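Appendix C: a fully annotated inverse folding record. The material below is reproduced so that readers can follow the format used throughout the book. The structure is listed first as tokens, followed by the designed sequence.
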């Protein structure tokens, strides 16, 4: 476990305990290091050309207060929205329509009309959706200064990564239009619709290496250059918006060295140089995991410990409600864990037998990690689960009706409540 990270987490945990930000009822708390989040976004912007739009994937972290923070980071920071709900939250958080990229494979006619009227960028998933837009177009009055773009999601079919359920660029994918079998139809669409000025791809999330991501971009880049030469011959404006999606993998385990954003950007520029020329293309990115995950951690009080012959179990206040994929697919999803005593002092060493981390839910699969080597864990200790800033709270499950935890953000150990622990009344409202 990286020492400085354990020290930083421990310092914040102790401060939060001391200043009463973790109260008796806060059996689990989610933390966000907001300074680190800002640093990540600044680093992201510095790797790509000026004028690029970085549509942070809301699905990775839909917290409204976090969205307000990211919005304040300048015009180049936007959002990628996967539903009308996410679009609505982004607008409410103050994002301009031109900073929002709307991706969803199942947009209704009403949703499309709303996005078109509002001036939100749309990535179209399939040819039927494209026809719906073509039908809507003549009746839509777009706002003054309308700069939204419409792009087509194309599956570059570069194969699947190491995690099947988050790979979307295999020969078959439920997303987008496959480049190989539909090449002619894609070209025809770009020659038929002058307003179709963008392309979009997303290869996968975690588990896809840089080579695979860059190959996907390269395939679409070549296709766009070809389409543009044909559009030019017919006097059409070129396709000029290129959305590379997200997918840069991060490290959940200290021994894994993740690729850097800088290296990824350099490889893209090498393969597709014009994407870095703002006079040719507007580049859009849609990173989620890389931006958010390492900036967050979750702490749970240990309510009970159970000892059996060769295995110990720590009974926690979070399980498959917050860590659904860790519980259901332990082959692919892991975290680093650290143990602190009730005052937030780090515990070290290893106990003789290994530990399971079990949650509070009523099914036997509610164990987020098995056979971990940990220090001796006792009732009242705190277990920190590292790297939970992305795709964790956003995937919260209501099963068993547990209250969602308090969520704290901090800058230099100054805490703010990003979201209060759910009250029993709010919980009741959900089911009523
Ligand atoms: N753009 C599109 C169209 C996407 O579908 C995704 C993620 C992203 C961008 C952001 O990808 P990222 O940079 O975060 O890798 N539920 C899963 C994650 C699925 C990700 C889905 N799409 C999980 O358990 O982590």
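Designed amino acids, in order:
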């Amino acid at each position: 476990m990286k020492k400085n990270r354990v020290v930083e987490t421990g310092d914040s945990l102790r401060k939060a305990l001391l200043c009463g930000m973790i109260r008796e009822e806060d059996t689990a708390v989610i933390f966000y290091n907001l300074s680190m989040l800002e640093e990540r976004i600044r680093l992201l912007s510095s790797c790509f050309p000026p004028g690029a739009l970085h549509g942070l994937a809301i699905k990775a972290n839909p917290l409204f207060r976090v969205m307000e923070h990211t919005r304040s980071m300048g015009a180049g920071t936007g959002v990628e929205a996967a539903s009308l709900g996410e679009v609505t939250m982004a607008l409410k958080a103050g994002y301009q329509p031109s900073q929002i990229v709307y991706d969803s494979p199942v947009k209704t006619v009403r949703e499309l009309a709303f996005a078109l009227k509002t001036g939100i960028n749309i990535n179209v998933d399939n040819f039927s959706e494209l026809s719906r837009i073509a039908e809507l177009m003549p009746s839509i009055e777009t706002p003054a200064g309308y700069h939204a773009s419409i792009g087509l999601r194309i599956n570059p079919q570069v194969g699947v990564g190491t995690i099947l359920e988050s790979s979307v660029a295999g020969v078959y994918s439920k997303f987008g239009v496959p480049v190989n079998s539909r090449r002619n139809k894609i070209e025809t669409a770009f020659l038929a619709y002058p307003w179709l000025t963008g392309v979009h791809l997303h290869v996968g999330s975690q588990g896809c290496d840089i080579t695979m991501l860059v190959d996907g971009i390269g395939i679409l880049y070549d296709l766009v250059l070809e389409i543009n030469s044909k559009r030019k011959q017919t006097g059409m404006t070129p396709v000029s918006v290129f959305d590379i999606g997200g997918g840069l993998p991060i490290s959940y385990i200290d021994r894994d060295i993740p690729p850097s954003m800088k290296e990824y950007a350099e490889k893209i520029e090498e393969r597709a140089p014009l994407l870095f020329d703002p006079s040719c293309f507007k580049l859009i990115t849609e990173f989620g995991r890389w931006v958010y995950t390492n900036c967050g951690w979750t702490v749970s009080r240990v309510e009970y410990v159970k000892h059996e012959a060769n295995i110990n179990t720590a009974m926690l206040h979070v399980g498959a409600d917050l860590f659904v994929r860790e519980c259901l697919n332990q082959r692919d999803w892991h975290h680093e864990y650290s143990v602190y005593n009730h005052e937030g002092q780090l515990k070290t060493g290893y106990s003789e037998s290994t530990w399971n981390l079990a949650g509070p839910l009523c099914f036997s699969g509610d164990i987020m990690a098995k056979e971990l080597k940990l220090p001796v864990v006792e009732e009242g200790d705190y277990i920190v689960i590292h790297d939970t800033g992305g795709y964790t709270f956003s995937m919260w499950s209501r099963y068993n009706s547990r209250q969602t935890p308090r969520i704290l953000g901090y800058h230099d150990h100054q805490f703010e409540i990003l979201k209060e622990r759910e009250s029993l009344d709010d919980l009741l409202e959900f089911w009523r």
